[in-house]
Amino acid sequence: MEAVRAPTDAIGGGTETDSEAGTGAYSGAGTEACPYCGGLGYVSYDVPPGHPLFGRAVPCACQAERQAAELRQRLRSASPLRVLQDKRFETFLPDGLGLPADQARSVRRAWERARAFAERPEGWLVLRGGTGCGKTHLAAAIAHRLLERGVPALFINVPDLLDELRATFHPEAESSYEERFWELRDAPVLILDDLGAQQSTPWAQEKLFQLLDWRYNARLPTVITTNLSLDAFEPRLRSRLQDPRLVEVVAILAPDFRRGTPSTGPDLNLLPLLREMTFETFRDRPELSPRERDNLREAVRMARAYAEDPHGWLVLAGPYGSGKTHLAAAIANIVASRGIPALFVGVPDLLDWLRAAFHPKSDQPYDQRFDEVKLAPFLVLDDLGTESATPWAREKLYQLLNYRYLASAPTVITTATPLEHLDARIAARLSDETRVTVITLDLPPYRTPLRRREPRRPGREP
Hints:
Blueprint: E1 4-6, H1 15-23, E2 42-45, E3 57-59, H2 64-76, H3 79-82, H4 101-119, E4 124-129, H5 135-148, E5 153-157, H6 158-167, H7 177-185, E6 189-193, H8 202-218, E7 222-226, H9 235-241, E8 247-252, H10 265-268, H11 290-308, E9 313-317, H12 324-337, E10 342-346, H13 347-356, H14 366-374, E11 378-382, H15 391-406, E12 411-415, H16 424-430, E13 436-440
Parallel strand pairs: 1-2, 4-7, 4-8, 5-6, 6-7, 9-12, 9-13, 10-11, 11-12
Antiparallel strand pairs: 2-3
């Protein structure tokens, strides 16, 4: 029996109704008096070929409330939310625990934007930050609030999502791949937790892109949490996530809430101590030759340009005292002022911090410390080449830089060591002109004039 053809405006004609219809199970037990389905319980839209709903049977409006109630109950009892029952807006700490002012502001802003989305789910909300900063708590709180208001919201962890899709290919699977994928694709509100944590196989990347590309084109409300920089995603998906017309990205600067105290990460971060190093405080140097002044001005111009659009890597090379650290800090301060977590570390300090994780009384395992740096949304490595060149140190630095190189994660490196004298594997990465811009400061060191002391006059108190 064919579904009754109904005009698009028969059930409101809006995107929201279309999306709700796409999530319900089909039924033939409709209401006999229904003027649209005649008791079948489902209809097909009178739309032209090529429309997403062409040829599809969807539940009639007379079934909407019953199916919506069933869907809300199923979503509420789904395992991810069942174990996150306590993750509500009321149980979130909007100012964190003993955080510096900038971190506390970022946490409160994320809490406010998540609450606003839960009240009016429109567009995409991307919550970005390190492990344990509260992203999943806020995402689950959005799901709970929407379900309480009667809005179907599907919350799922991305690695679990891909496992579920793979499981549909099993001969004894309860639902087909198409049914599960359509449910995710057409969910009125979809909340994807931990995007980027999945195993990045070509199949996984393709499925995630198909899912998010559909929701992007349909402008369906979506929440995403990730601890990756947007630049770490493959180009097609990155272009969707960077569209300001649809997507709002909120960065959370807080360390891991679950440890109860601030992470040692902020102690490693030198940026709070370098707040005065800005482009405005970068001194001109009238003592330089014309060639050297031109070199300095070009370096400042290129550093400013990178700060405005921090993609790929920037290497500041030159002798000690030439201004490399000041320029790197000026870039990082601009990035941080936009709400993007910026980590500024000296390479020797970084290696000492990683080694300390092996101490029996360390409050943080090595893997977690390494990931904090590896996954930093914006990283400055100061003084590369001054570290103790042990095999362990060389291997850790290569692992760190190779990951960020492959992920195209924004990174600034300063070094006084000629690139050809660095570890050959790292030097190869730094020599890739398609991803790395090198600024060479061919300048003598800054000289701070000594304060002259006048000789003491005879008979005068010292």
